[in-house]
Amino acid sequence: MANTFKVLTRDVCPASSGTPETIFTVQGSTSIVIIGLILCNVHSSSITASVTLVSTTTQTGQTQNTTANLTKDMSIPAGSSFEVMAGNKLVANAGDIIKVDASVADKVSVILSYMLQD
Predict the structure, then answer these.
(1) Residue 6: beta bridge partners?
(2) Residue 94: in which H helix or E strand, if any?
(3) pLDDT in tens, 61-108
(4) What pLDDT, on a 0 to 100 scale, did the predictor assign at position 1?
(5) DSSP for 66-88?
(6) DSSP secondary structure, 7-22, as one string
(7) For the chain, how are helix, strand and coil distributed in percent, rounded to 5?
């Protein structure tokens, strides 16, 4: 099993406020460990942003996963960044999806750092 460090960037998102935009979908037969997730407000005034993990995997002996919030309506001042992970790690399985939404369209820049396990 190889471990490869990766980074994914999005200049601005979401395309429409109130419609979470898919940032990353974990490909089949792989898992990732999210090691960093930074949101930057590129707007001239404060915004709120939310990040969700959409998961439909079922662990042995457990119920099926659902959508969970990593952060919900987090206020980010103009020109500031927010580190969602803040030094923590998060495992995402094949088919899991990371989505970002904001109170204003096209005003959040995203950097996602992860380790791919395949």
Answers:
(1) 114
(2) none
(3) 777 888 999 999 999 999 999 999 888 999 999 999 999 999 999 999
(4) 67
(5) -EEEEEEEEEE-TT-EEESSTT-
(6) EEEEEEE-SBTTBPEE
(7) 0, 60, 40
Q: Is the Cα torsion angle 97, 57, 84, 26 positive or negative in sign?
A: negative
On whether the CB atoms of residues 100 and 47 are closer than 8 A, the answer is no
Q: What is the pTM of this model?
A: 0.92
Domain assignments of the chain as residue spans, ordered by start:
3-117
- Classify residue 39 by its DSSP letter: E
Q: Is the dihedral of CA 112, 51, 89, 2 positive or negative?
A: negative
67/53 Cα distance (integer angstroms): 6
Cα atoms in the Cβ-side hemisphere of radius 13 Å centred on 108:
34
How many Å apart are CA 26 and CA 41, to the nearest integer? 25
Whether the bond between 20 and the residue before it is cis, its omega within 30 degrees of 0, is: no
DSSP letter assigned to residue 103 = S
CATH topology for the 3-117 domain: Jelly Rolls (2.60.120)
